[in-house]
Amino acid sequence: MSIFLAIVVVAVAVAVSAGLGAILVGGLLRRLQPQVSTPGLLRGGLWVGMLERAIVTGAIALGEPAAVAVVIAVKGLGRYPELRDTEPAVRAQASEQFIIGTLASLGWAGLIGFGARITLLAVL
């Protein structure tokens, strides 16, 4: 397999994971929790999620699943202070939204990354 084909497979997987994942995960959150309003909380979630999915998909596609643990750790440590300092009345909703979004995002990214990995191995 040419290196060019491998780059194309990984690039397409990362683009699908990040782009389509934003639509799917956002839609899931709106469907499951339509009344949740956390103004000012979890800002940048769209961009964080897109980067998260891109890194996780790329890592799995390239056979480096340990990188997923780093992504989870960085995301959790980055959001913890914001969630900890939130008013108790809103904290539960914001935490639940964070967990559901993260798990849906990681699941989608893992699925696409695994598909890309299988594709890479099949055409080697």
Strand-residue fraction? under 5%
* Low-pLDDT segments, ≥5 res: none
Tell me, briefly, the overall form: elongated
Q: How many domains, in number, for the residues?
A: 1
Number of helices: 4
Structural class assignment: mainly alpha
Order of helices and strands: HHHH
Distance between the termini: 5 Å
How many E strands? Answer: 0
Query: What composes the largest sheet?
Result: none
Present the secondary structure layout.
Blueprint: H1 3-32, H2 45-61, H3 66-84, H4 88-122
Helix pairs in contact: 1-2, 1-4, 2-3, 2-4
Describe the structure concisely for a colleague.
This protein has 124 residues and is mainly α. The chain has helices spanning 3-32, 45-61, 66-84, 88-122. The protein has one domain.
Report on the architecture of this protein.
The protein is mainly α and 124 residues long. The protein has one domain. It has helices at residues 3-32, 45-61, 66-84, 88-122. Helix 1 (3-32) packs across helix 2. The chain is elongated, with a radius of gyration of 16 Å.
Name its key features.
124 residues, single chain, 4 helices, 81% helix, mainly alpha, elongated
